[in-house]
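Usage

Read records sequentially. Each one opens with the input sequence:
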Amino acid sequence: MNKLIAFSAAIFIAVSGIANAQTTVKSKTGAASEIIPLDPAVRTGKLPNGFTYYIRKNVEPKNRVTLYLANKIGSIMENDDQLGLAHFMEHMGFNGTKNFPKNDLVNYLQKTGVRFGADLNAYTSFDETVYQLPIPSDDPEILKNGIQIMRDWAQDATLDDAEINKERGVVIEEKRLGKGAQQRMQDQYLPMLFNNSRYSNRLPIGTEEVLKNFTPATLRQFYADWYRPDLQALIVVGDIDVAAMEQTIKAKFSDLKKPAKPRLRTKYSITLLNKNQFITVTDKEFPVSVAQILIKHPESKLITKTDYRNSMVRSLFNQMLGARFADLSKQADPPFLQGGANISPFLAGLDNYSAFVVAKPGEMERGFKAVLTETERLQRFGFTQTELDRAKQSYLTNMESSFKEKDKTPSASFVNEYLRHFLEEEASPGIEYEFNMANSLTGGITLADLNGYSKKYITDVNRDVIIMGPEKDKANLPDESTIEKWISATKQSNLTAYVDQVSDKPLLAAKLSGGKVISESKTAEIGVTELKLSNGIKVILKPTDFKNDEISFSAFSPGGTSLYSDADFQSASYATTIIRSGGVGEFNSVQLPKLLSGKRVSVNPYIAERSEGISGATTPKDLETALQLTYLYFTSPRKDAETFKGLMAQQKGSLANRGNDPNSVFADSLSAILGNYNVRRTGPSVEKLNQINLDRAFDIYKERFADASDFTFVFVGNFDAEKIKPLLAQYLGSLPSINRKETAKDLGITIPAGKIDKKIYKGQEPKANVRLVFSGDYTYSVKHNNQLDALAEVLTIKLIERLREDEGGVYGVGARASYSKFPKSKYTFNISFGCAPENVEKLISSTLDEINKIRQNGALKLDIDKFIAEETRSTETQIKDNGFWLGYLTSQYQNEEDPKQILTYLESLKELTPEFLKATVQYRLSDNFIRMVLLPEK
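and closes with the structure output:
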C-alpha cells in the first residue's frame, strides 16, 4: 500500500475548525443592488412568537426527511461562570426531554434505524447551536415523533441533576481528545488572532474548571435565557407534504415561550486594530515548521446581485491563485513542502487573505519568500487572460453540473443553504437562479476585476504573522524583524511576469482502431450488463438514474505489489504516485490540468498489494475524455525525473519530525505489530524513501499495465448501455493484451496469534488511546459476515451505554469488524476509544465485561433489532447511490461472489439471533487478542 505522506490541513490556522464557521464565499453588499430572492420552492414563515421555519419537499432520498433545529446562540453569549455550557447544553439534548426521558430518545431513534453520531447529531460554535435529525418519512409515527423531538429540544430538555453530572465526564473526555501540540499552540496564538476580543476566551469546548464545577442551576439558566423562539428556526426538507408539515409546525411550536424580560442577543465582532501583529509558538510534538500570514478585512455579505458577482470574482481569484501554487509545487526542487493562499471568511464580521507555507526542514526563509514572491508577482503583474478563461470555463462547468442535478440534489444540501440563510442572512435563490446569473455575469468579469481583488485584499495593515515549529528548532525560527526584512526584500526583488505553460495539442493525436464486443450477458435482477471485449477485458455496466451528470468507474487486475520482492517494494508501492505526479502522454503535470480545465474528469491509476487498476469519475459529456486518459495511463505513462526529485524531497521533508507526534508513533507501532513487523507494514521512513528508484518504479508500472486482458472494468451512472459500447470498444478495446495469466501472491503477512499487551509511551498530555484487536482464521460467507457486522454494532451500542453514558469515561467508543477472502480468509475485530490514563484499566475491564455478557448470555434481541433496522434503512438509501454500486460490484467481482447477493441481504439479516452472536463471541473474540495503549511519557 502506498503510504503517501501528507499533512492535515488542521496544522494550519483554520478558524472554521475552531468555530465550525461556514465557509461559503461572501461579498460586500451594494446598497443599490437588487436583493436576491429566496428560492420559491421553499416555504418559510415566522410564528407570532418569533419562531422561524423553512419547509421544502425533496425526494432525494425518497422516504426520508432531514430536520434541523437552529439556535442563534453559541459560546459567545456565555457568562464567565458558563464557559462551555452552550456546548454542554447541546449534549444534554440527548440525555432526557419531556417526552423522551433519560436515554429514551437515542434508544427510540436507534429502533427506527437512526444511528447515534452518524445520523443523529449536533454541533455548537461561537454563534450557533444546531441539532440535526435525518429520519424515515414513510412512517407517520416516526415523522410525528421526529417533530416532537425537535419541539422538546427547543424548550423541553429536562436537565436532570443526575444526568448532568454523568455527562460532565463525557464532555471532559471530548475536551481531552482535543489536547495536544495544536491545542497548546492555539491557546497561545488565538488571543492575538482574535485581537483579544471576546472570542479569545469563549471557545465552545469551555474550561475544565467550569465543566467540573458548574451547578445544574447555572445550566438551566443558560437554557432558559437563550433557547427561545425568536432565536430559533426549524428546517424541514424531504419527502413530506409541505402544507401538512406547516400545520404541524404551527400546532407544535406556537406555544414556545419567550422570557418575560429577554436578554439582549448581542452581536459581537472582532474589531480591526489597524496594526500588524506577530507571534512565534513552538512545541516539542509539532512535526513541521509553518508560517501563516492573515490579513483581515470587513466581511462581505451575499445578499444582492452585486454581492453575487463579487463572490464569483472571489471564486475565480482563489481558483487561479491555487493553480499557480500547484504549479510551484511541481518543480524539481519545490521551495516548500506545502504552500498556498486564498481569500476566505474568517470570523465575527471579518474575511481574510491567508497565505501559508509548510517549510522544508531548515528552509523557512526560502519557503516564506516563495509564497511572498507569488503574492508580489500577482500584485505587480496580475493574472493572464488564459488563466481567467480557464477559470471561467471551470466555474461554468461546475455550475452546469449542479444545474443538471437540480432534481437530484440531496436534502442535506438544501438544509445547509437554509441554515446559512437563517443564521447569516446569506442568499439562497436556488440553483436555476444561480445558474442563469452565473451565465449572464461571467462574460463581463475582466482581468481588472481580478487584479483589483488582489490590491484590495493583499495589504500591509491588519496583518498577522504566525510562526509555528518544533521546540528543537526554536532558535532557528525567524523573529518579527527578520520577517519584516523578508517581506521588504521580496517587494524590492526583480520579478518577471507569470508564464502560463499550456499546450494546444489534443489529448490523443490519432484515432484508435479499437476492438470489438465479442460477448454480452445480462443480470436483469440488478440491472447489470456484462461485456467481453476482443482483447479479453471484462466490462460490467450498471446504468442508473440516481444522478443526471455522474458516471463513476473502476478497474482491477490481480497482481499488485505482492508480485515484487521486498527490495522492490518501495518502488512498486510509489510507482503510481510517481506516474500521477508526472503527467501523461505529451502533457507534463503542469500542462495536463490546464488541458482538462472545464471538464469534469478524474482518472487515477493505482497499484495495491494484491491488484492494480484505475479509479475514475466523470460526466456523460466528458466520458470520452476519461476513456482517453485511461488509455494513456495504460500506454503512455511519463517518466519525469525533475518531478520525481521534487516529490521525494517533499516526502523526506515531511518525515523529519514524524517521531515527535504521538499519534503517528502509535499508528506506526500498531501497524507494525498487526503486520508482524513485516517491512511492508512498518511506518514510513527516509531509509525506505531512499530505496525508491525512478527507473525501477517506471518499469514496474509498465509491467502492471502491460496486459489489459485480465482487467475488469465496472461503470456505474447515467449512460445508455447500448450507446456506451462504441466508446468502450474504441478505447478499452485498444488497450494492450498479451494474455498472461497472473494471480496475486500470498505474502504470508498475518496478525500474530496469541495474546500481546503493548504500551507505547509518547506525548505529554494526560490522555490515552486504547486499541483492542481480536483476529483469526475465517470462513468468508454472507452468514458469517452478517454475524460479525451485527456483533460490531451491538457491542458499539453496549459500550456507548456503559463507557460513555453510565461511566462517563469516554466521548466516543466503537467496535468495527473487517474480513477478507483472499489470500486466505481472515477476520479482524477492533475496539477503540480515548480516555484518561488513570481510567484505562477500568474501561478495558468494562469493555471485556460487556463482551463476556454476550459470550455467556447472547446479545439482547432489542440490540439485534436495532442493527437490522439501521441496516434496512441505510440499505434503502444505498441502493439508490452510484458510489455504493461501484464499490459493491467491484468488491463482489474481485471476491468472486454473486453480485445478486444484495437482493437477499436484508432477508439474510433475519437469521441473526442472540444465540448466533453468542457463538460468534465465543469463537471469534477469544484466543488471539492484542491490547495496545498509548500513554503519556513517564
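Summary fields computed downstream for this record:
- The chain has 30 helices and 23 strands.
- The two ends are 34 Å apart (CA to CA).
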